[in-house]
Amino acid sequence: MKGIDYAFNPHPAIASIKAGGFGFVCRYMSPLPVNDANGKNLLPAECAALLAAGLGVVDVEESDAARMQGGHPAGAADAQHGDAVTKALGMPGIPVYFACDWDAAPADQAAINAYLDGAASVIGHARTGIYGGFWPLSRALDAGKAAYAWQTSAWSGGQWDPRAHIRQSGSAVIGGTVVDLDEAVKADFGQWPRPVPAPADLPAPGLLSDTPYCLVNLGWGAVPGATEYHYAIIDSAGKVVADVKTPGTHAGAVRLPHPGAYQWRVSVSQPRGLWSEWRPFTV
Asked: How far apart are the first and last CA of the chain?
């Protein structure tokens, strides 16, 4: 999924973000009052407007580029602030990225790791994320200091850590405003609304009949609160042979045009969710 991040005023119009095909926006939090006035901080009205437009929101805490040099106390203080802001914005429990926004050397890593430990002591390891270049980000992940990672191409020497959830590379002008370009490479990249887990217990479709067409049964685990499911089937050439919404049920039956290799997947339409992985089957 494509996304963008931006800080200071002017901000791009939401209509321009949507028109560009972007699905999420990464925005900043900091305790500095000046950042409320200059546009860096995500404020309630903007957050509500982004969510109302169907855009995901990702939060990153940054008061100073090298704030992580403050170690454990700085991390704990920033996590307390970030947790309070995300609750005030109506996004309780969302993961928070903490910015390592400089070309951090190996000698800086002890302080970076201590900062992340401080953040985790407040919001928990499962909500603690790091933003930064390849080396400090990779060292933090190697040490188990963060559960989420947002890597920038800056200070990365052309390398990407495959564990990163978001990749930031390049910039563009959207609605007359220069923004950074991002790509979410994991289904859960710390966004709000939080993704509804796709059903995990998808069984292989059962072949009911092979004459005159192949009739298959589909079934998947129910997701609490879901009112509609959506499943799709493609053939070995990637052609869509079924694309069906099923309100109020978590099963379906499809007649396929011929025997052969197929793949299928399912998503939860309400509440908002993500597609499961493609599951192969043969009839």
From this structure: 32
Sign of the dihedral defined by the CA atoms of residues 154, 148, 101, 96, in that order: positive
At a CB cut-off of 8 Å and minimum separation 6, what does 90 contact? 44, 47, 48
How far from 13 is each of 17, 20, 22, 201, 276, CA to CA, in Å?
Answer: 7, 11, 12, 41, 32
| pLDDT of amino acid 218 | 82
CATH of the domain at 210: 2.60.40.10
The pLDDT, as a whole number, for residue 239 is 86
Asked whether residue 139 falls in the same domain as residue 172, the answer is: yes
3-state secondary structure 94-129: CCEEEECCCCCCHHHHHHHHHHHHHHHHHHCHHHEE
Total-model pTM = 0.74
Which amino acid, 270?
Q
Number of compact structural domains in the chain: 2
- Residue 250 pairs in a beta bridge with none
User: Residues 154, 263: one domain?
Assistant: no
Longest pairwise C-alpha distance within the chain: 71
Domain that holds residue 35: 2-184
Q: pLDDT value at position 220?
A: 77
Q: Which two tokens stand for residue 273?
A: 């969710």
CB under 8 Å to 113, separation ≥6 — which residues?
A: 139, 140, 143, 145
Q: Which of the residues in the chain have pLDDT under 70?
A: 196-204, 207-213, 224-225, 269-274
Examine residue 10 and say whether the peptide bond preceding it is cis (omega within 30 degrees of 0).
yes
